[in-house]
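The passage that follows is intended for readers who have already worked through the single-chain material. We present the inputs for a multi-component assembly, then the predicted structure in tokenized form, and finally a short commentary. You are encouraged to pause after the input and sketch how you expect the pieces to fit together before reading on.
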Amino acid sequence: MSTKAELAATTEGKPGLCLLAGTLMLAVPATLALVAPPAATSSGSVALGLVVMIVLTVGAGSVVAATAQPERASVAGLAVLCAALALVLAPTEVWADGLSGTAALGFLMALRAHAAARRGPLDIQAWLVARRPMLVGAAVTTPAALAAALVPSAWSLPVAGLVGLVTAGICAALFAG
Amino acid sequence: MSVWGITWEPAGWLLPVVTAAAFVGVAVVILGRADLVVFVAPLVGALAGAWWSAAPSSELQVDAELSAERVFQGDAVTLQVELVVPEGVELLDVELDAGSALRARPLSWSHTRSGVMRGLWELETVRWGRFSSWLRVGLRGAGGLMIGEASCELPEVTAFPSGDSLSAVPRPMELPDLLGVHLGRRRGHGVEFAGIRGYLPGDPLRSVNWLVTARRGRLYVTERLAEQAATVVAMIDAAGDIRQPGGSTLELSVHGALAVVRASLRRGDRAGVVALGGVIRWLSPDLGRKHLYRVVEALIDVQSGSGAAPSEVGSFPRAVLPPGAAIVVFSPLVDERVLSALADLRRRGFGFAVVDVLRVEPRPRPGSDYDPIAVRMWRIGRRGVRHRLAELGIPVLAWPEGAELEEVLRPVAQRPLLGSRR
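Having made your guess, compare it with the prediction:
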């Protein structure tokens, strides 16, 4: 006879963090679409706006569903995909992409923390320390990608490499201390 | 606290997600929206960082404790397990594989302190024997990139068979010359009147029957029956094990044998246990409570099949089957070797009774023309076996479902078992 111990649903977890990060992730493309909409001269732009709205609605639903069931990775993936799709449809804005991407990472990590907190008491500080390599990785690649996107394409690779190196050095100095 | 290895492997979602992300990345570049790389940069960085540090601990510390390691069949024990989860590793699920002989019920699961999880299970022993259980632990490490699994062996539970309580067990006609509680045919120093005879030199004066002496005018003494101990051997047919409602044939045999041995020892008799076929330690008849524990220990190891124990009576040492012992055989009476052994026992002059522990019969398959005929032939064969044994003077007692062993053995427990004179 095989018996599984009931590990889940011992506490409420931390759903607020997930909702906050998920909202920020979707709010960026939504703001872009509202503030700088595509030129409203053709019927195509109306349809595009409708599509963005649908995508964001699905994304919002996915954020709520993923918060309710943080163990279901596919729903969380759908929420991030919706954010990415909304950014593709919205006007180009490098800073907004970076912000939304960082929020997406925050949303995914908040979901993991939420799931862990539901299984039992969670020490957030220790939990973050255990995930330090992920945070350092994100801290290195995001400024590098941002810098690469901001400079002319001929300079993007060396600039990205340089920024990446500098950020990595800063992280190493910070954490070594 | 024991340490068990964790086997890590990449999480199942990793390959499809990375492949899909690569395709999306290529599509984004082809579409000319290279700026979207900025969106995925934090995710890729986190993934790379987790992969860079993907060396979660490969050791899981487990502390398992049973409330009792030795119990009787049907009793329950509490299993407490403490898992020390390594830093940076998440516990996904814990599964207790207790096998078919233990019924496991989870009681609680809690965090005791940072990184230490404590689980409580109740294990009920369904049958006797020694049982190991395994804890299978699912883990997630390296930020979810690696999925780990650990299997930990938990302490063994030993379940002793429990036997019915018997007030009387069969005894042999010829009692050995041992002090006990049974009245045999031998004259001795008991309390039961046996007869009167003339005084012989050496007779104690207190045995003189003064009434008869005064009437006859010469000395007469009162003879009394000696109080002797019997030797009882419980024999288990372990050549096969047939599953049936209310316990398999081997389970019933073990329960019956234990009940017989326990009742005999309580009565002050010598009792032993042997098996035909299968695997068991022979235990020659002996006295006392310690011997009962030895028998119980030996019965735990009974296994069916063609094992170490012989299937011929002649192979048993004389000490295991002493002449004049009363033997109670528990058998489903389906193995021809066992039937031959029973006939051999009878020829050697043992007095014994057979308890038939088979409670089921073959069921014909629906729609089959020949199965009912085969079942009828099987029934005729069973009747033939009983007839053969009856012709040899061997009483065969059926042990139907719901009947106590006490009622089953009553017909043979009321009078001594007849063996042939030696």
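Commentary: The CA atoms of residues 332 and 358 of chain B lie 5 Å apart. The two ends of chain B are 62 Å apart (CA to CA). How closely did your sketch match?
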